[in-house]
């Protein structure tokens, strides 16, 4: 029995892995194991022999089982240590840099608007942000003493003493871009002019720089009916609502006659804005038939040509579409809030609606 003890305790200590250990367990204390077979012999012994051998065999069995358990634990420990060594990682290494940039909502909305009007045959015109007061005002039928000049809260460029060239201003609307486009292209013409404009004003709904898009369509017989269709198509595509409803309210602008302000049907129920349903109206743009004097300033004969124009605030459209409450947030230096509204670096503006003309 001492031989048996020596044999198994030694072999267990030397076992290389768990399968080897299991093999030893079966050989020693398994059903047909050496110790188990010896225990079966007890039945054939005399009571005295049994009295002596029984406890010894039980002790041997216990001893082997303990050695197996201890070796099993030691093997598991060694395996864990090996994993810890092999899978070691340096948590102090700097992280991989992540993309931080996002598309600005104003840029995205500008692209969305451009895509929609492009589908209706409008091209994009651009022009200087510093304009002569002729292009910004006179050409738009706003003569020097016109009250609209004051209402525009214009930023004037400073002039050196004795410099009496005509005053220049930061453009207060993108209309001068369209005057230039008319002068360059003549009629017929279909353009939109998106871009930055400036007015000396600052509160929750006004920033001194904001973005406007104006549109202009001149042809032989372009009418208010065409204006109405173009604006309805635009709103349907932009707000992604099939049943948009617009309301044209008579208004006044110096550069259009007749003029209309346009409201869109909406609901403020539950504190959130829904476009295209409900009993409320939201003003979204100004429009009208281009004034003959403005056509003339653009070098177009008002006896031969006519057309419509409209203007709207891009920032406001972005706020309405994406539910952004405060205009000033757009022009903060800290743009982390953009992520809250779902603007990501990978967002690519899409062609809206699939309009056809
Ligand atoms: C508004 C109103 C408007 C225009 C802009 C325009 C341009 C030319 C000729 C005639 Cl070149 N009109 N632009 C016309 C009507 C309204 O803007 O409330 N904008 C935010």
Automatic annotation (TrEMBL):
UniProt keyword list: Aminoacyl-tRNA synthetase, ATP-binding, Cytoplasm, Ligase, Magnesium, Metal-binding, Nucleotide-binding, Protein biosynthesis
Cofactor(s) the protein requires to work: Mg(2+)
Signal peptide: none
Reaction equations catalysed: tRNA(Phe) + L-phenylalanine + ATP = L-phenylalanyl-tRNA(Phe) + AMP + diphosphate + H(+)
Keyword Nucleotide-binding attributed: yes
EC number: 6.1.1.20
Major subcellular site: cytoplasm
Binding site for Mg(2+): 257
HAMAP family for the chain: Phe_tRNA_synth_alpha1
Membership in a protein family: Belongs to the class-II aminoacyl-tRNA synthetase family. Phe-tRNA synthetase alpha subunit type 1 subfamily.
Protein name: Phenylalanine--tRNA ligase alpha subunit
Organism: Rhodovulum viride
Name of the gene: pheS
């Amino acid at each position: 029995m001492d031989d048996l003890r020596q044999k198994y305790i030694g072999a267990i200590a030397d076992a290389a892995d768990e399968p080897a250990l299991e093999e030893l367990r079966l050989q020693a204390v398994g059903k047909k194991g050496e110790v188990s077979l010896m225990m079966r012999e007890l039945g054939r012994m005399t009571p005295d022999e049994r009295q002596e051998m029984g406890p010894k065999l039980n002790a041997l069995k216990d001893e082997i089982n303990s050695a197996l358990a201890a070796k099993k634990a030691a093997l598991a420990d060694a395996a864990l240590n090996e994993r810890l060594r092999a899978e070691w990682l340096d948590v102090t290494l700097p992280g991989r840099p992540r993309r931080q940039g996002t598309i600005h909502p104003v840029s995205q909305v500008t692209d969305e608007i451009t895509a929609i009007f492009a589908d209706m045959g409008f091209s994009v015109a651009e022009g200087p942000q510093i304009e002569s007061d002729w292009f910004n005002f006179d050409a738009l039928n706003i003569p020097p003493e016109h009250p609209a000049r004051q209402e525009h809260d214009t930023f004037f460029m400073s002039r050196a003493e004795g410099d009496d060239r005509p005053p220049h201003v930061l453009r207060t609307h993108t209309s001068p871009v369209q005057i230039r486009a008319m002068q360059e292209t003549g009629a017929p013409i279909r353009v939109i002019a998106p871009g930055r404009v400036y007015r000396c004003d600052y509160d929750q709904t006004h920033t001194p720089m904001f973005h406007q898009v104006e549109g202009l369509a001149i042809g032989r017989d372009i009418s208010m009916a065409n204006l109405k269709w173009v604006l309805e198509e635009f709103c349907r595509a932009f707000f992604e609502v099939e049943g948009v409803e617009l309301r044209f309210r008579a208004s006044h602008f110096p550069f259009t006659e007749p003029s209309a302000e346009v409201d869109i049907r909406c609901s403020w129920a539950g504190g959130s804005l829904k476009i295209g349903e409900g009993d409320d109206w939201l003003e979204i743009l100004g429009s009208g038939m281009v004034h003959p004097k403005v056509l003339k300033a653009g070098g177009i004969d008002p006896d031969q040509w006519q057309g419509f124009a409209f203007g709207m605030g891009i920032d406001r459209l972005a706020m309405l579409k994406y539910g952004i409450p405060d205009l000033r947030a757009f022009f903060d230096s800290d743009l982390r809030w953009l992520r809250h509204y779902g603007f990501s670096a990978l967002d690519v503006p899409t062609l809206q609606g699939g309009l056809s003309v």
